[in-house]
Fold each of these.
Amino acid sequence: MKLTKFAKPLVLALAFTVAAAGCHKHPSGVTPLPGYAGKNKLEDVPPSGPIRPGEEVGSTGTPSNDPNSHANWGEHTDILQADTVYFAFDSSVIKEDEKPKVAAVADYLKGNTPNAVKVEGHCDERGTAEYNRSLGERRALAIREELIRLGIAPTRVDTISYGFDRPAVQGHDEAAWAKNRRGVFVVLTPPTAQ
Amino acid sequence: MKDNENLGLGLKSRAGRESCGDETSPPLARGVVLAFSVCLLTLISARGQTELQVSKAIEVVGQTKPIPVSMSGFSGEVAQVLEFDLYVQGFTFTSPEAAQYLITGSNNGSVTGQLRDPHNNSTMLSKAYTGASLRRQAHAFSDDIVLKVTGRKGIAQTKIACKVQNGANSEIYIADFDGHNAQMVTRDDTLVVAPCWVPGRLALYYTSYKLNHPDIFYHDLSTGTRRVFARYGGSNMSPAASPDGSQVAMILSKDGWTDLYVCQADGTDLRRLTKSPQDESSPCWSPDGKWICYAAKDKEHRSLCKIPASGGTPQRIATTGTPSPTEPDWSPDNKWIAYTAQYRNFEICVVPAGGGQATLLVDGEDPSWAPNSRTLIYTRRQGGGTVLSLLDAPTKQVKDVSRISGSSNSQPSWAR
């Protein structure tokens, strides 16, 4: 296939990705391409046409709480600070080695009724603004579903997405990005308990 | 719209002199011809001679040569405004000998200007402007030039909205399309993001975290009043007003997934259009209001999709050759969808609205079409922050917008 102007950078990017995958380490400043790491070649890009709506994966989603349900509750960011859950690039799947943190949060909630928790979903800067706002919410929702699976009432878990707007650390490298792809737990305490 | 009034001078809508320009394009992708603007080729045979008349230059996206003009007689701000306005609409500046059109005039107290065609020594435009500021007069003159030469309405007196970052917080601002005359819209001292103009009205939708929660607000700029538009459980994100302003598309997580919803402008009749645990983000509307386009993920493939605004089956819009498309914006003339693709960096791309071979234009993200369906405003990362830039899609000519305020400007939305 004849290479066009715009295809050249693509091929370069692909070549780069393959090279990066080969040494199993990404050179600094190189963004691994989501869903494009050598797997999807140009020919694999799907044509126009109908797609399958509503592909079912896992549960069907638990309805979110009324935004006013914990309106005047106290917020405590320090209590569950150590349990911040970190995510892989462009993923809202809770990694196995991060699941004990969610379990610890579930234990905290079981031992501290009627406190509730607000799960904040955050992203690194590698993604467009509103894409990341959706991704941050999916991260928070994934954690919420895990807490529900562990026996916590849905009414005790709120979610909020900040996209990439509230990074934990500044910086434009993998070390910074890894710290910014996260789910943060804010403990909510009823007004009388403040 | 008040800000788009034309200084009471009135633009006469008459197609300008036809310009053939240079239609020779560099090699294109096999069999792909991207005509940016419908060109009407009229073959007129007369006395054995065949004359080719082109009513409007064929504008191949990213590969069209700019229209050479020569300008003299202006100084200071007026000269700068004229150069800026014309450059981002596909003109370039050259010597009088090489110019296709000559622009002359003065700005002593007020702007007077002429547009001449040196090849047949005709005056195409001769006008004097009064009122408002010199800057506005210069914008009005450039609009007249663009209309006369291209037959398209100029964009020099249009407005944009954007997000302005200040430390950890951000607010919404509006400004002239070139970044001048900026006005702060929100003072929420928190995150305010994703502004969207309501077409044809002085009004915005945006998401503000003001009430300790990401809610969508409707803000009437003519009265300065606003109201909470969507405050459902979870996050309320990425509002997009329909072309007639009667409906709003948005991303909500009220039902436990981030899905695409649409409702009436009064907030009633909320309908869920997608039901998927996968990605849906950044909706936009087709100009006829029948479709909502958004960024989606189907199994492993990221793609742009469109779904009937009344509900139905989503359809993929092929963006062949470009990975991870997000942030689509459908051109007002219904021909193109501009979007952001993710390579090593983000790239502004366009694809025919029906899908097909995509064209990569420049580094950048979050494009928004001007009313002329030709110029795009987008966000460009620079250092640790972002600036807004304008891109003339056919010629790929780029100019930065003046910094509106704060440290970073992003998420532009063009009033149209």
Note: Confidence is low (pLDDT under 50) at residues 1-8, 10-47, 51-58 of chain A.
Amino acid sequence: MDALPPAVTSLLDFLIDRINIGIFAVNRNMECTLWNRFMESHSGVASASVLCKNLFQFFDELPHKILYHKINSVFILKNFAFTSWEQRPYLFKFRHHRPVTGGVEYMYQDCTFIPLKDPAGEVQQVCVTLIDVTDTAVYQKMMKEAMTSLAEASNRDGLTGIYNRRCIEEVIMKECQRVQRYGGTLSLAFIDLDRFKEINDTYGHLAGDDVLRITSTFLNESLRQIDALGRYGGEEFVAVLPATDIEGAYIVAERLCRRLADIPVHHNEIDIRVTASVGIAEWQPTMSRYEDLIKAADQALYQAKADGRNCVRRGT
Amino acid sequence: MTMNNANLSIEQIDALQEIVNIAMGQAGDSLARVLNSFVRLSVPRIRLINSAQASQCIAEIVGDTQQITAVRQSFYNKLCGEALTLFSSEGCRDLATLMGHQTLDTETEKELLFDISNILVGACLNGIAEQLGADLSFSAPSLMASNVVSSQLLSPDTLPWAYALQVEVNFSLEQHKFKSHLIIMLAEDAITALADSLNYFIEAI
Amino acid sequence: MATPVLVVDDSGMSRKLVIKSLPADWNVEIHQASNGQEALALYREGKAHVIFLDLTMPVMDGFEVLEALKREGFNAFVIVISADVQPKAQERVKELGAMAFLKKPVKADEVLHVLKEHGLL
């Protein structure tokens, strides 16, 4: 490169020193040959003391192996190298400028390792630039959290807050695959509120909504941790009962049925009597698809309705 | 499609082909040293594509039903463009084993792919630039897509160029499933700068 | 009498570079081929006492040429010129009977050295 006029060189020196990016360089012995003000102020190590000294001597917290490997690869392959905060949040334990809102401990960093070649094309030094990407990292983290809650929301029924039909069918499918592959027992209970249309007609839709909300909360609280409850249709719920055979499912369903009938739903000073019909079925080795189990429980529910409601029937 | 009607002459293409050949050899050697395994190189293919054909071209290179993971990197200065490194999903697992990882979390796997991509892109493009008397800078590798069907990697509607020069190089390992495709793309404006550099090169012979 | 020299490479540019790197005072009669098949045909016509051979070529590559030459008695000095610079690639072509290996892009002083080393000059 042609020699630059003194005014330009001093401007460059000034820029390198004052720019809001960490810049440092090392030679083949890992001795520091450049250490700008950003590095000074964030590390607390003055340029005067680190220059011509082994970098690792000053920073024992540095991920020695990774950094050595990166710098060495630049010397050998004569090629750029990089580290990104997404894989490795930081190389240097620097404080960042968001002590209040950051929510992360150290400055997140993107580093670029640049080969500095002599006229013969040999790499004599490696220059490293370090960019503070804490803001980006914090925003990305916030976005990820928002995405997670969005995904969670799409699995929930808007009225009752329990799983929606799409999600509970997925649960049924996965549980069926599990018993198919690993054995064990699995039962389903289809729970349908009796004469729900009459409740709507007599007390109004708001009362109907309250009945659905309160009933689903009651059902959810009556089930075990490993069970799953979803809203399958208008007033139809489905409970997935892993590790439960048909006898166990019958006991659960009977209890739900009786307690539901005993405790009225309280809406605007009025007690509304609610009963439910329940169809239960157990996964059979002869079944090939999860739809078979749903069909068996649904048929049992139909039988419970036909037998006068407010009762439990088994499907096969 | 013939190259004759593009901005590059047959002589320029021939020179570029040879330059890429040599650069690719250097990239293969770098990869071989890192993976400690013999790397098989394909004959590099250079062609001019228009944006409507872009995704079809990618699908053709790796096979349309193949699930791929793609890493991209920019290069700039005298030559500018983007380099894509495509890995088959199966090859990624193979690569992990080769590098001595028993199990891999996604971040470590990403870092591994970035390293390999950076080696191939850097060695190949530095090799090209050196022969043409250019000096390049590179951006950090970033993940473009992971486990997508190859034909869905690029969406033609969003490509801001009409045609581009595509240089394709394939690397594979003997006795391993690992395979990677390096695709260097120069959009229309950048082709003129390349043509100038090639002219200097040809005149010097 | 001029030595028949065959330069085999699919790239015209590359053949030009090889020819340019040959010693100026070497009395040669140069033939060119752009793939292995053409190269073998010229070899059978006796137009190849020294062969500068590229490895990656369409139709028939350098490895196949070396194998064919081996079957046919190997009556030529083969100098492989390749961009594939992996040590293992060099070993392989030497196992197949190549006399020397030169890295691309070829340099005049390296060509001179190889020719002298094998008594061709």
Note: The mean pLDDT of chain A is 90.
